[in-house]
Write a structure and sequence with these properties.
alpha/beta; 2 domains; NADP; NADPH binding; NAD(P)-bd_dom_sf
């Protein structure tokens, strides 16, 4: 089978379109023929050595959509089942293996293309909003990096929930209209969001702030987080760690919560099935959708990575396998 293999850390030149053996399933696993896989910013960080270990040869990719072609005995999955999955050992390949706890059936009405865009961003966003942030309709919230995959999903889910005010940030003003169409009430850039949040909330601050950027954005977010508010930290796309002092939280009764979908897939995968069921229903009923920025052939993975690194896109970037 064809797969994208990397044998060292580096730029896109380390990604090789290669022939490798089709993996063999073990107990409680499925073999899936991949139709599409998504490109996530985590893939970029893994490729250049900023995330994970160098267990080469390495296959990138977090999630995929495709068809089950083999399953273990007594499996709840059968040949021909249409699924989304979080494969082990990467998803940039024609065939992948995934633990059954990380495989979820999808209806015939949901296209593989749309399905491939959803696993990481939709499941993560749903958990961030409803389990970690525990949003209420009366809340004013801030969503950073709102034009990206997770940001796009967070905005739509928050709007669907009926959140009072959705304030968002984007890296450039040409993404403002896109984010507003998703349901954002206010869209601002990173250099103005603190003042804008205070203005929009009568100087009370936002009840919940969703931060995947970290670095300076984290400390700036604390400047406009309300009393008893929650900062939900789930990434560091800036490449820098965010910092805060204990005095930032105890006297103001504010709190900071962290969440990682990768950690949850590894240590608590059973937590994901009920969430996957809910978001699949939302996609099937077209209550939410994920705009597809661009689709590349698997062999053109380098161009897909360059687009992600440019940040000049809106929605999700996919690889067609």
């Amino acid at each position: 089978m064809k797969a994208i293999v990397q044998n060292e850390f580096g730029d896109t030149s380390v990604l090789s379109y290669s022939d490798v053996k089709i993996p063999q399933i073990d107990d409680n696993e499925c073999l899936i023929k991949v139709a599409f896989t998504s490109v996530n910013y985590a893939d970029i960080k893994t490729r250049n050595g900023k995330k994970g270990k160098g267990n080469f040869p390495l296959l990138l990719g977090l999630d995929c959509a495709g068809t089950v072609v083999d399953a273990a005995l007594n499996s709840s999955f059968s040949m021909g089942d249409r699924v989304i999955a979080f494969p082990k050992g990467g998803s940039y390949a024609e065939y992948v293996i995934a633990n059954e706890q990380l495989v979820f059936k999808i209806p015939d009405s949901l296209s593989f293309e749309q399905a491939a865009a959803m696993p990481t961003v939709s499941i993560l966003s749903y958990i961030l909003l409803h389990e970690i942030g525990q949003i209420q309709k009366s809340d004013s919230i801030v969503i950073h990096s709102a034009a990206g995959g997770v940001g796009s999903m967070l905005v739509q889910l928050a709007k669907l929930t009926g959140v009072q005010k959705i304030i968002t940030t984007v890296g450039s003003k040409d993404k403002v209209n896109y984010v507003k169409k998703l349901g954002a009430d206010v869209v601002c850039t990173y250099d103005t969001f603190t003042e804008e949040v205070l203005t929009q909330t009568d100087n009370k601050g936002a009840n919940i702030i969703f931060d995947s950027v970290a670095g300076d954005v984290t400390s700036m977010s604390l400047h406009c987080l309300a009393l008893y508010g929650t900062l939900v930290q789930f990434g560091n796309s800036s490449g820098k760690a965010g910092t805060f002092k204990t005095s930032d939280v105890h006297s103001s009764c504010r709190n900071i919560k962290g969440f990682s979908l990768g950690t949850t897939r590894k240590h608590n995968p059973v937590r994901l099935a009920p969430v996957a069921e809910k978001v699949i229903e939302l996609f099937e009923s077209k209550q939410i959708t994920i705009p597809i920025a661009q689709v590349f052939n698997l062999s053109n993975v380098a161009e897909a990575h360059k687009l992600i690194e440019s940040r000049n896109y809106e929605g999700k970037v996919l690889l067609k396998v």
